[in-house]
Fold Secreted protein.
Amino acid sequence: MAAEPTPEILAAFEAAKGFMPVVEGLALYDAATGAAKLGLPLLEVGTYCGRSTILLADVARQAGTVAVTVDHHRGSEEQQPGWEYHDETVVDSEVGRMDTLPTFRRTLHKAGLEEHVVAVVGRSPQVAKVWGGQLGLVFIDGGHTDEHATNDYEGWAPKVAPGGLLVIHDVFPNPEDGGQAPYRIYLRALESGDFEEVSVTDSLRVLRRVG
Ligand code: SAH
Ligand code: MG
């Protein structure tokens, strides 16, 4: 039986701004519930407004661990003004740049999950460099250029504990369905021999560290 969020948590997830469809969210929740048994932190790259963070936070709460979520909160390339995924309500008008941090904090507050999350504001490679410990789960959902996806893989995959999970979002084997950078790091993870595939749900791939 798959672990499922309560109707309240699911409603909070659905109400949050963001990009993760419910079906993939449920797969992430189930995977995270298994990974949380290791008792280690669950880390996300790509907080945005906290939609997927809600799920990791609720799993962490139940397991007595913590969700860590990393973002510079200035948005990815495709979220900038004039681009397909831009939302003008997440622009800091004083600075003239995107700032998803205030919306993220409201999302977590509304969901009652603030206590279970450590939010790190910064660039993923810099945070990875100063992050020492092992992780029960790494969820890569940050920048979608090859540079960003590669940095996320190289920075965070080595920190997944044995038996822990590496979850990658926006994996599209067919170029017509989307950018190829997440797909390329997914292939790299499998080819490394360090990870085996656990599940595929639309564009969400769950891999486990072997050995
Ligand atoms: N997980 C979110 C969606 C994340 S969108 C959800 O469920 O809705 C991708 C996010 O990655 C954006 O907020 C962007 O600011 C962040 N991002 C992109 N490149 C980054 C980098 N190098 N370091 C930190 N965050 C980054
Ligand atoms: Mg995504």
Q: What stands out?
A: The chain has a mean pLDDT of 97. The beta strands are 42-45, 67-71, 91-92, 97-98, 117-121, 135-140, 160-168, 195-201, 204-209.
